[in-house]
Amino acid sequence: MSMDIVDLKPSLLEDLKKLYKNLEKDNNNDYNVTIKVEQKSFRAHSVILKLRSGYFRNLINNEIRRMANMFNRRITLEISDINSEVFASCLKYIYTGEFSLQEDNDFLFDLFIAAETLKLIDMVDYLQNYFIQNKTKWIEINLIRVYQVSLNSISFNELQVHCKQIIDRDPKFIFLSDSFPTLKRSILLDLIKRNDEFLTEIKIWRHLTNWVHEQEPPINRDTQNWSPSNIIDFEERIRDFIPHIRFFTISSDNYYSCVRPYKDILPQKLVEQLEKFYLVKEATPPPNALPPRTPRRLRRNISTYSTRSPTEPTTPTEPRLQLQVVF
């Protein structure tokens, strides 16, 4: 810094903090924006909101807000997708550059989402790194929610990569989550398409049917008392998943107790092939049947082999493999 320039920014920041605290005083009229969030109203200054938040900059600069300014009227904004307590923390940050990490993880994650909505980029970047570096266990427990949120904005890309690494390492975090019924269809389909054995096939089938039952509107779990509309709805929901279930790797006992009750929603040809496979001695799966999923330890070994340079020599006991592993 040049010796000719005096840096008194700390004093400026203290004045902004005072300005923020004065907003809460009943007799304070030095504001021109009222923001309604849930049942609460917040006072603010348009010039600070516009300077600090891209969201407010766009909101305030539209034609209606400019007309309000021309007539020297206060601007009223309504925000419907942010919790009022979370917004209070965002507004404090806008004025002071401060927010607390002493809140619980759910609150901080809501704050993270709200910061992206309000385009508070520095807060987004800080909280994203904070969760990745310090809250991996919490992310694993809440993986479905966190991962699905991370898909909503390019600003969440680092968190999305982190979640994908957890899922690739062990997809069971997804299937065993209490939030499993809320998982998006496309994500579940991608997981079931995997070739590695992250769960036994019958457990994958059970989780899948449970997921189908829980979608809105829920479908009666008693298949013996299904109405024609239940059959149609269930079949439509599960249709895209059926080609990726390794039915012929399921034991006859599990087939009878867990798969056969759903035979009305399975393709008729598949049902016939399965019944032949289980009932006819020496019967084998049809040529188009999917093979068993690759055990995860073997999958890792194959990945190691497949990344070897094509020109790198192998030992006599190590066969040369040219495999492309599909995940």
From TrEMBL:
What lineage does UniProt assign to this protein's organism?
Answer: Eukaryota, Fungi, Fungi incertae sedis, Mucoromycota, Glomeromycotina
Species source reads Rhizophagus irregularis (strain DAOM 181602 / DAOM 197198 / MUCL 43194) (Arbuscular mycorrhizal fungus)
Protein name, as recorded: BTB/POZ protein
Which ranges carry the BTB domain?
Answer: 31-103
CDD domains per the record?
BTB_POZ_ZBTB_KLHL-like
Q: Where is this region: Disordered?
A: 285-319
Organism's domain of life? Eukaryota
Note the SMART domains from the entry.
BTB (SM00225)
Q: Which GO terms describe its cellular component?
A: cytoplasm
Spans of biased composition, class Low complexity? 306-319
